[in-house]
Every structure is written in structure tokens, then in C-alpha cells.
């Protein structure tokens, strides 16, 4: 995959428009368009910031690798940063195979419906849906044991 394709793919994975990416990098939308269509290449000084914004490594942008790895990390209360993609590699890979926009729409509609029906806050709704999903997971695990 070429650098322009990688930029476009990573940008779409994190749901940024060319305009938004351009603003974050202090360049024009046309510059982003040229990078993505391989008519130009980012200045060397822009690559670290580009990689940071797209949540990929500089190495990924510059090498001829095949997949986008999105960094998924969380800082705990004790200051340690957990990179969930190292613990669960699927978290860095699924964006390449799953129709994320389709599931995003489905989940958004579920959340909105539950908030409206039960007058729950957004946080409460997400917690309830997580609990329902976990219970479904446990049921499926038990079915597979039989």
C-alpha cells in the first residue's frame, strides 16, 4: 500500500475529513488531497505530527506494510499506559475488515432508542447495553460448552 493510500485509510478509520486533518496539520485540504492521491508527499517535518494525528507510527507511513494498526491505549489512575492492541491484537486490526460505519449506525440507533424509551443518560445507556452484551456473551459461551 502506498503512503497516500495509508493516509486516506487511517484518516477514514478515525473518522476525520480531509478538511479536519488539514486543520490539525496546519495545511490546506488540497495538500491532504494531493498526499492521498500520490501527487505529493508530506514534508519530512510533517510526518511525526501526521502519524500522531492518524494514530499510526511514522514507520507505518514510510514502510510498505499491508495493514493499518490503530493505537488503542488508556492511562490508568497510577499513571501506567496500557496499549490494548498489544493485549488484544484484534483491536488494532478489525478496522481493516469490519464495516465500522454500519455497526456505528446500528449502535447509535440502539443507544438513542434506549435513551428515549427509558429516559436514561448517555452514560447509563452505554453501561446497560454493555451489561446486556456481556450477558449475551455468557449465554453463548454456555451454549458452546454443551
Automatic annotation (TrEMBL):
<feature type="domain" description="HTH cro/C1-type">
    <location>
        <begin position="7"/>
        <end position="61"/>
    </location>
</feature>
<dbReference type="Pfam" id="PF12844">
    <property type="entry name" value="HTH_19"/>
</dbReference>
<protein>
    <submittedName>
        <fullName>Helix-turn-helix domain-containing protein</fullName>
    </submittedName>
</protein>
<dbReference type="InterPro" id="IPR001387">
    <property type="entry name" value="Cro/C1-type_HTH"/>
</dbReference>
<keyword id="KW-0238">DNA-binding</keyword>
<dbReference type="InterPro" id="IPR010982">
    <property type="entry name" value="Lambda_DNA-bd_dom_sf"/>
</dbReference>
